[in-house]
Specification:
The complex is a heterodimer of chains A (about 290) and B (about 260). With about 290 residues, chain A is mostly helical. Chain A is about 70% helix and about 5% strand. Chain A has helices at about 1-30, 40-55, 60-85, 90-115, 140-160, 165-175, 175-180, 185-210, 215-220, 225-230, 235-255, 265-275; strands at about 130, 135-140. A two-stranded antiparallel ribbon of chain A has the order 1-2. In chain A, strand 1 (about 130) and strand 2 (about 135-140) form a beta hairpin. The mean pLDDT of chain A is about 90. Chain B is α/β, with parallel strands linked by helices. Chain B folds into 2 domains: about 1-85 and about 175-265, P-loop containing nucleotide triphosphate hydrolases (Rossmann fold, 3-Layer(aba) Sandwich), CATH 3.40.50; about 95-170, no CATH class. In chain B, the strands form 2 sheets. Chain B has a 6-stranded mixed β-sheet, sandwiched between helices. In chain B, strands 2-1-4-5 form a 4-stranded antiparallel β-sheet, covered by helices on one side. Chain B is globular, with a radius of gyration of 19 Å. Classes of the chains: A mainly alpha (about 290), B alpha/beta (about 260). Chains A and B meet through helix 5, helix 6 and helix 7 of A and helix 2 and helix 3 of B.
């Protein structure tokens, strides 16, 4: 029982970090139909940015987190302005190809600036364990779950209620109509990339605390894809639930079955779910009448 | 005073000239019809006005809702909409996954303020503004008889109703000028009649300046104050409907060159 609880907390905390990165992916997909292959690398970038802000610059944690998020947003806005905006109006596939290139560039940039060796530094999440009855649970992991959920809820509210969030849904639905309603596409795409980078950076900050700062984070970033495909490409709720499912499946198979299998089982489940629900758990079914 | 002035507009796509030094004035409060054979350049005129096409030469000047004059020909489409130019499209462009109400609320977009942060907080001023937008949208719903459809998803509506929703959304923008691109296309006689009535109501009761393109000559002759006839990107006739109907150049354009027996 205590093993089960520990695995659950560990799986959920990893899952919520997946969800943060995946939510950023969903925001960009919702606004522009672009599949952002660089989303996992934004997560990687976030871990190094917080390392830079806190360990290298020596800022206190509170300030370090703010600086990290702001830097990530700034980098994303520059990327959007220089790389993606010129492609507005071009076929979506060109933008998608560009994000593949972007992924390599981000990874190379991290390598060039910080080098390939793993770095270590103290987490802002408190170390140590809390006792829940006889079970010892990691405080840091336990805390990361509500923090991630709060950020995800804020994103969800943004889509539901703000002017720009609604404009984003409108652009995804019909660009020409959105233009004729006075919606500025460059502004909305900029906001989408900024938000995607911000949520990835927050995921990166927590990841830095939980698993440390190393180029291996990029492989964790790859988990964004099973998460969003499972949850549905255009659903924030789907990203949260997909993240939780993939995170839990990994640790349960790792803990109960065997270490090697934990890398495979999430994909097996993903394939099974897609057989029943081809648009993912919460994805919008697109039915075109011709 | 004209609400909209197009001067010597020339629009080319490669070697094809869609508009050739086209000049047009839209007077405040009038219902102006643009007619002409297929490919005459009617939709190009609307697309130039709303910024979807950029004319290579010429100027477009709008007297906006604020009473000031604005040059439109260098502005991006969203700025033009913000100045009070609303439109509908030949192939209905609606937010198909949203409800009628949500579509109309998006029509209020240009009137909404507030950034990413303040917009999310449903308090104080923001709340009062929201109520104001709601009231305006409800009034349009009432005006267009869309009450029974307000929470229906737009993609599921009948074709004729989608056209009405598109016009209602343009009205929610509270436009200085309303551009309608073939509002009766694909409709049966009954639907056409009801659409014509709505256009007249919009024009007469709400006092909106309207530019309408349509192929249904009977509808056009019934509702418009003034008609401009285009052919090959040029104006070939202009005047009251009955004048244009008997104009020789118009008959030629529609029926091919006549030999003596048409007068």
């Amino acid at each position: 029982m205590d093993v089960f609880l520990q695995l659950t907390v560990s799986g959920l905390s990893t899952g919520m970090i997946y969800a943060l990165a995946a939510a950023g992916f969903v925001v960009i997909y919702k606004a522009s139909d672009v599949i952002n292959f660089a989303q996992g690398d934004l997560l990687l970038f976030g871990t190094y940015l917080v390392f830079f802000a806190v360990a290298q610059t020596g800022l206190p944690w509170s300030l370090g987190i703010v600086v990290t998020v702001l830097l990530a947003v700034a980098v994303a806005l520059v990327i959007e302005r220089l790389v993606l905006r010129p492609l507005i109006g071009e076929p979506v596939i060109s933008m998608i190809m560009v994000t593949i290139g972007l992924s390599s560039v981000l990874r190379a940039a991290v390598n060039a600036i910080w080098g390939p060796a793993p770095r270590s530094f103290e987490s802002f999440l408190p170390a140590g364990d809390v006792a829940l009855g006889p079970v010892m649970l990691s405080t840091g992991r336990l805390l990361s779950i509500p923090i991630a959920l709060a950020v995800l809820a804020a994103l969800w509210l943004f889509f539901r209620h703000t002017r720009d969030g609604i404009a984003m849904r409108a652009i995804a639905d019909d660009q020409q109509a959105a233009l004729s309603m006075g919606i500025s596409i460059p502004r909305v795409f900029g906001i989408a990339w900024g938000l995607a980078a911000a949520s990835a950076a927050i995921g990166g900050i927590m990841l830095a605390g939980i698993v440390g700062v190393s180029p291996n984070v990029a492989s964790i970033g790859l988990r964004v894809f099973p998460v969003v495909i499972l949850g549905g490409l255009d659903s924030i709720r789907g990203a949260v639930i997909g993240g939780a499912i993939i995170g839990l499946l990994e640790v349960y198979t790792g803990g109960y079955v065997g270490r090697g299998l934990s890398l495979v089982v999430p994909y097996v489940v993903l394939v099974l779910v897609l057989m029943v629900r081809p648009y993912g758990l919460f994805g919008k079914e697109i039915i075109e009448r011709v | 005073m004209p609400v909209l002035e197009l001067r010597d507009l020339t629009l080319r796509f490669g070697g094809v000239t869609a508009l050739a030094e086209f000049t047009m004035e839209v007077r405040t409060g009038e219902l102006l019809a643009l007619i002409g054979p297929n490919g005459a350049g009617k939709t190009s005129v609307l697309n130039c006005i709303s910024g979807l096409y950029r004319a290579q030469e010429g100027t477009i000047t709008l007297t906006g809702r604020d009473g000031r004059r604005h040059s439109l020909h260098r502005l991006p489409p969203h700025r033009i909409a913000a100045l009070g130019v609303a439109r509908t499209f030949q192939n209905i462009e609606l937010f198909k996954h949203m409800t009628v109400l949500e579509n109309l609320m998006l029509g209020r977009h240009v009137h909404m303020r507030g950034g990413v942060l303040s917009g999310g907080l449903y308090v104080g001023r923001q709340r009062r503004r929201e109520i104001e937008h709601r009231r305006c949208v409800e009034e349009v719903i009432d005006f267009m008889n869309l009450e029974p459809l307000r929470s229906a998803e737009v993609g599921n509506l009948a074709y004729g109703n989608q056209r009405l929703v598109e016009m209602a959304r343009a009205l929610a923008l509270d436009p200085a000028i309303l551009l309608l691109d073939e509002p009766t296309a694909g409709m049966n006689a009954e639907e056409k009649e009801s659409m014509a009535r709505f256009i007249l109501d919009v024009h007469e009761e709400r006092g909106v300046t309207v530019v309408v393109i349509d192929h249904d000559i009977d509808v056009i002759m019934d509702i418009s104050d003034r008609v401009i006839v285009l052919d090959f990107g040029r104006e070939i006739a202009e005047g009251r409907p009955e004048e244009v109907r008997s104009d020789a150049a118009v008959i030629d354009a529609y029926l091919g060159r006549a030999r003596g027996d048409v007068a």
